[in-house]
Amino acid sequence: MPSFSGGKEGLSCCSILTIALGVGGGTVGLFGLLGVNISMLLVVPILFLSILAYKMITSRVHVSPNLPSQWKPSKPQEKYLTTRDGLKIKYYIVPGKGFGYRRGKTILFACPLGHCGFRIYYPIMAKYGEDYTYITWDYRGLFSSDAPQRLRRISIPMHAEDGAEVLKSACPHRPQADVLIGHSMGVQVSLEMVLIYPEMIDSLILLNGAHGHVFSTAFQPFFRIPFMRHIPSLIISSLLDAPHFLETAGRLLKPMTDMALLFFGRSQLASPLLKKLLGESYLLDFYEDYMGSVCNDLKTLTNYIRLFQELDAHSVCHLLSSVEHPTLIIVGLFDFLLPAYHGDEMKAEMKNSVLVSDIYSTHASILENPERVMVEIENFLVEAARFKRKTSTIFRDISVSEEKNPNMDCKDPIEAEPPECSKKCAE
Questions:
Q1: What does the DSSP assignment read for 238-271?
Q2: What is the mean pLDDT of each run of 10 residues along the chain (427 residues)?
């Protein structure tokens, strides 16, 4: 089954930049074997200034994502469910057309670590409005959801199980997501969920994420550096021993961070689309919602730090080849946290996937360059309609099937087996 194509613009340019910057980064990376901390002090500002300079001397791709000129986010419904192991999980619903009926379409959002609510996904919600019902939830251990007594029950597979329960509770008539969208940590949760409950997901959009073992690539934007994975592991272990240090550091750095984000939002480097849609403070609003929520209570702060360890312990790399769902993978070329080559590795294994590498973004492509990202999402959702289920895990490109046999008129039920479908078509 051939994979569909799309979003190829700029990939060759990204490849050239990767090679060119990789040479310089590799030199610093080798020096990092002797002094990783000094190496990172050089790599991060140099490459960050490089992308800013590149934005200033080049123009953005002129595309039209067709977002409304004015939009106000709807207040979500807040609900709770009790999970299989007795925890109360808080989830949020913004109802769309057909909500509560089988004909309604649903998008399930798996949030990045430390994010509460829908804010990072506002461009998608503004684009599609009431066409979809939007659902997300607070991960167990964070914000208004209960924390398990056993540390093992805060793992990525447990979050994926919670996501399935949220979908069943929110949409009892049709517990199925037309699109599952994950950002950062949400990518690993999404991949785990589609592997455990493939019949509940029709398509995937994976934004700035990884397939697992995140410490092995953190702060290594263009290739893996030997022994580097021990540095983030040591940092997280130290923060777990003193979680209040993160809260104190955030409070002390807040004036400088606020000033930098406001300056960026008002500059020519910010997204014209989001400045018009959400205001010049859209990045600051996101950051305050993000870090402010994390530091509100010790339970959330401690589990926030601990979940970095779970992200490193988790991996679905060996199972990616079994995911045939139509999938859009978007990465930021300058992503230092979850480098872009995770996207290449996922694309190589996932049969019906397409990869978009965005040269203008780092770890939040949907906020940094929504002009490009929203066009890619729109194109993908059109292309994804070409794929129909053959079984719960196998998808068929019907456009290819119709070209081979234009007289075939067979609609495969979700759980129909291939021999039965062939027999029905023959009849």
A1: HHHH-THHHHHHHHHHHHHHHHHHHHHHHSTTS-
A2: 40 39 42 46 59 57 70 95 98 94 92 95 96 98 96 97 98 95 98 98 98 95 89 95 88 88 86 91 87 84 97 98 98 94 98 94 93 96 94 89 52 42 41
